[in-house]
Amino acid sequence: MDYAQYLYPGHNWTELLGFGNAKDLYKSANPKYFTKFPAGKRRVHPGDIVVFGGTPTNPYGHIAVVTKANKNNMFVLEQNGYNPSGVAYYAKRPYNNVIG
User: Fold this and answer.
1) What pLDDT shows up at residue 86?
2) Strand order in the sheet with 62-69
3) Sign of the torsion angle spanned by Cα atoms 7, 13, 15, 19
4) Is residue 85 left, alpha or beta, with left meaning phi > 0 and alpha meaning psi from -120 to 50?
5) Beta carbons within 8 Å of 80's beta carbon, 6+ residues apart
């Protein structure tokens, strides 16, 4: 939400991303502001927002911002993933379970 508002100052995050859980924001993100690429249709690039689907342990999904990527993994800035303290951190993530 903060990153979306950083990209588009003066806009409310709900105008930019819509509503729902993390996994829902790929569908609800406003196409006026974001170009959507389904998983596997384009290699991710630094600055991309990646939406992950739900899992048995986290049915709500997850969102991260790509900082760099290679063919096997992406490196992201994320929050509330494996660190529930609320502090943002960098992580290496595989491409599986990415929605777009």
Assistant:
1) 76
2) 49-52, 62-69, 73-78, 89-94
3) positive
4) alpha
5) 86
Quickly list H helices, the chain: 2-7, 13-17, 25-28
Q: What is the mean pLDDT of each run of 10 residues along the chain (100 residues)?
A: 90 90 94 94 93 94 95 92 79 94
Q: Which residue has the tokens 């491409």?
A: 95
Instruction: Compute φ and ψ for 5, nearest 5 degrees.
Output: -70, -30
What pTM, to 2 d.p., does this model score?
Answer: 0.89
For the chain, counts of helices (H) and of strands (E)? 3, 4
**Per-residue confidence (pLDDT) for residue 87, from 0 to 100:** 85
E strands in the chain: 49-52, 62-69, 73-78, 89-94
Q: What is the pLDDT of residue 66?
A: 97
Residue with the two structure tokens 């990527």: 69
Q: Which has the closest alpha carbon to 56: 99, 100, 97, 98?
A: 97
